[in-house]
Design a protein that fits this description.
Length: 712
């Protein structure tokens, strides 16, 4: 990947060997070029950034007679008799007798390779070779199966050291790739190593202050470590660069969002603001009060706000957003609230309409299902400023919507919206204050690194009187007892959600429960006679909304659905959440789903049904308790991150950056995170635009990083 280098070619002195095509390396050509290209490797520079995924520890050298079973080690021996035979399964096997060089007698140890004709061609009987691998007992003799081997007088590339293991592609031999990298890193006869030409973009002052290896040395150690300690030093240097670049990039993006931008000052007089609070149907929680004060302070300035409001499901983010919108309107500006789904937009519209009931701002709903004449009218009113607040899906931020004066944009459930939508908003010719909300708690390690371009407000408690949702994990066999229990509660006037991982059979190749099949089965079986409805993303949105409306109006008892009910839907009368195939959901998602119930007064339940009911660590976290209480969204998010890693946790659609090259986002070293944050701040304090010559390397690295994640 050209863009995957820390230092892009533009920052390099003109021709270096790094820009040469891989063919320029001895031994690379023909078919190998195509194979390497499949790994994104075109130039020698690309090759150098193809880093090992792990290492084989072959540094432990023992005489052949003293090999130990089941441990990785290296030995030297003389090639004895070579035989070939077919195994019981018909596979060709090459067997080599190993002679002990100490006494020139058979050592009793054999080396075997499956189907590896070339061993016979490469090594002659009588030759001294070095072999690395695991020895296993085979009958009463030790045997090295598929060991790596090279001539004893050759340089240590595949044996006798910590040996790098690389990601491959079909057809590419690991030995070849390792050999080419060795040439790039250690050089070849009469050739200085290419790695020495890698320019170091990190200012020397930082490198000295943090005692970091020079970049080329770090790369050498990472590919072919001289010791384990040096390997760690090498990795630390590469990780340092990566985190520093990320922090600089995010800080700069924020600076760009704020640079020259003039957002309207949005202020509400205290007396008026207090009056709104008194008019609310409840008292704000402490967290809500804190969040709205932080927002008020931000939007009262002309620097555009960029704030993430983070709060567990049901923590009451909507009212905070509504208050902020009201401040905007009082100040003569407009506000927009965008939700990820039409259903949710409708719900927000209802909430805002009732919160703004008398003498409050005017509010309209704009979704793709609004009729053409209505849409024209709303667009007109937004353009001439006669409409104060618009609620809609992200259809709002695309195509032909203009505002007279957009002061505040609220993006609900932010992780569903990418960085790109933020930019689109900006392109509307206004610089609105931006409030993002999310119910997916973001673990601390990630807020320190990935979310550096926003400020955080956290709602860390639920409104008083919220009850705990009783949660149980059950195997599918238990369902025959669950259905009568559901019936009973429905007889008492309650409602249930049943959620499945997929819509229909045939979506995905496995046997996960599907909404369609579950609905059909229950309708004529376990829940016969009740009012069931089906809800999934493939229904036309009109129909979906209709089903949801009927469920809210209690015309439906049981809703069989996919995760379309995941986000934000508020049905206080629903008390049962039954999740089938629960092991297929992430913890954050399960927590979100569970949050759909327990919104009213009645006792509520979540039943997580899974084939792996007993074994799943993830599902167990859903019933775990801490200080006498269930784990909250933050605990669960941390756990999810630990169990699944950052790539899975963040997902591609949730954030452009899910996996870095060196740093594991789910396990960032706090010291490294702190050090890079300090250096990033220091650099930007004196050179916010990275224009000074000593920071040219950093600027180029930031550019390359954004290019790599296509977020430029
Ligand atoms: P979320 O943070 O998940 O978006 P909502 O804004 O939908 O949560 O709020 C969930 C429910 O809590 C709503 O019914 C709302 O009216 C109610 N609510 C919000 N704030 C409070 C509060 N301070 N006291 C009591 N109920 C509240
Ligand atoms: Mg919400």
């Amino acid at each position: 990947m050209a863009a995957s280098r820390t230092i892009p070619s533009s920052s390099r002195p003109n021709s270096t060997s790094l820009d040469l095509k891989v063919e320029a390396l001895p031994g690379v050509g023909g078919e190998s070029v195509k194979l390497l290209e499949r790994l994104g490797i075109r130039t020698i520079g690309d090759l150098l950034w193809h880093l090992p995924t792990r290492y084989l520890d072959y540094g432990n050298v023992r005489p052949v007679r003293h090999l130990i079973a089941d441990r990785e080690q290296t030995t030297e021996a003389i090639v004895g008799a070579v035989g070939q035979r077919r195994t019981a399964r018909g596979q060709m096997m090459t067997e080599v007798e190993l002679i002990d060089p100490a006494d020139m007698r058979p050592s009793g140890v054999k080396a075997t390779w499956f189907g590896r004709q070339f061993i016979k061609e490469r090594f002659q009987p009588g030759q001294l070779v070095r072999l690395s691998g695991k020895a296993t007992w085979f009958g009463r003799a030790l045997q090295l199966s598929n060991p790596k081997v090279e001539a004893a007088d050759a340089e240590r590339v595949h044996t006798g050291r910590m040996v790098p293991v690389y990601r491959l592609t079909e057809g590419l031999k690991e030995g070849n790739l390792r050999r080419w990298l060795h040439t790039a890193v250690e050089g070849a006869p009469k050739r200085s190593p290419v790695v020495d030409e890698v320019p170091d973009g990190l200012p020397a002052t930082i490198r000295a202050r943090r005692e970091l290896l020079p970049l080329s040395e770090a790369l050498k150690e990472v590919h072919f470590p001289s010791t384990e300690a040096r390997l760690l030093e090498g990795r630390r240097r590469l990780a340092f660069d990566e985190l520093l670049t990320l922090q600089l990039g995010l800080a700069q993006r924020r600076a760009r969002w704020q640079k020259d931008a003039k957002a309207p000052k949005l202020v509400a007089p205290d007396r008026e603001f207090e009056r709104w609070l008194v008019g609310l149907p409840f008292t704000l929680t402490e967290g809500q009060q804190r969040a709205i004060s932080e927002i008020r302070a931000d939007i009262g300035r002309t620097i555009p706000m960029s704030r993430l409001l983070e709060g567990d499901v049901g923590s009451g983010k909507t009212v905070v957003a509504a208050l902020a919108a009201r401040i905007a309107v009082t100040s003569g500006a407009q506000a927009a609230l965008m939700a990820p789904t039409e259903l949710l937009a409708e719900q927000h519209f209802r909430t805002l309409s009732s919160l703004f009931a008398e003498g409050g701002p005017s509010v309209r709903l704009l979704t793709s299902s609004v009729s053409a004449p209505d849409r024209r009218e709303i667009l007109g009113a937004l353009a001439d400023g006669s409409l104060d607040v618009v609620v809609g899906t992200h259809a709002l931020v695309v195509d032909g919507v203009t505002f007279k004066k957009l002061g505040l944009a609220v993006v609900d459930e932010q992780h569903r919206f990418g960085v790109r939508q933020r930019t689109t908003l900006r392109e509307k010719g206004t610089d609105p204050h931006l409030l993002l909300t999310t119910a997916t708690p973001i673990p601390r390690t990630l807020t320190q690194t990935l979310y550096k371009d926003v400020d955080l407000s956290v709602l860390d408690q639920l409104p008083a009187g919220r009850q705990e949702i009783r949660t149980e994990v059950r195997p599918p066999e238990a369902l025959e007892k669950v259905w009568p229990w559901v019936r009973q509660h429905i007889a008492d006037g309650e409602q249930a959600f049943i959620v499945t991982p997929r819509i229909d059979k045939g979506d995905g190749e496995d046997d996960a429960p599907s909404a369609v099949a579950t609905y059909e089965e229950l309708r004529s079986g376990g829940l016969k006679g009740l009012r069931l409805a089906l809800l999934h993303g493939r229904l036309p949105s009109k129909e979906r909304d209709d089903v949801m409306r009927r469920f809210a109006a209690r015309e439906i008892d049981v809703l069989v659905a996919t995760t379309v009910v995941e986000v934000g839907i508020d049905i206080p009368n629903a008390t049962m959440m039954i999740i089938l195939g629960a092991e297929r959901f992430g913890l954050a998602q399960l927590h979100q789903l569970r949050g759909r119930v327990g919104r009213g007064e009645k006792r509520s339940y979540a039943v997580l049904v899974s084939d792996d009911a007993a074994g799943s660590e993830r599902l167990a976290a859903m019933t775990e308790r801490k200080d006498g209480k269930p784990l909250d969204g933050f605990d669960l998010a941390n756990r999810d991150l630990e169990i699944r890693g950052a790539g899975e946790f963040l997902g591609d659609e949730q954030h452009g950056i899910s996996e870095l090259r060196i740093v594991d986002l789910s396990d960032v070293d706090p010291r490294l995170s702190r050090e890079t944050a300090e250096e990033a701040d220091a650099v930007l304090a004196t050179d916010p635009t990275l224009e000074q010559p000593e920071n040219a390397g950093l600027a180029a690295a930031v550019e390359a990083l954004w290019r790599r994640y296509a977020l430029a």
